[in-house]
What we know:
InterPro entries: Zf-HC3. Helix content is about 30%, strand content about 15%. The chain is an alpha+beta fold. Bound molecules: zinc ion. The site of zinc ion (ZN) has 8 residues, from strand 2 and helix 1.
Amino acid sequence: MFSIGWRGPVVWWNPIAGYRHAFGPDTPPRPEQHRDTLCGVSVTLTESSDADWLLPTCDSCMSEALIRSENREQRHRDARRRLHDQFGTEFL
Ligand SMILES: [Zn+2]
């Protein structure tokens, strides 16, 4: 009914076009995919080298990732409170 633990990524990060951009959580980034970054850029992903991961993080993607993370934490707290109110049991 209510799963605890790893809830999957909020976003995926991938270096492309000079920055580390974030992507939606549904599908992990893979080379050759056509994806939209969270900051709204359409890109075709490429194979990333280790050095690519040292690229600066895109500020817009980071802001969006933080918002998504906070929203999910809020939903998690809300769900826990509803369960507590309904069943009187602590779900952690
Ligand atoms: Zn970005």
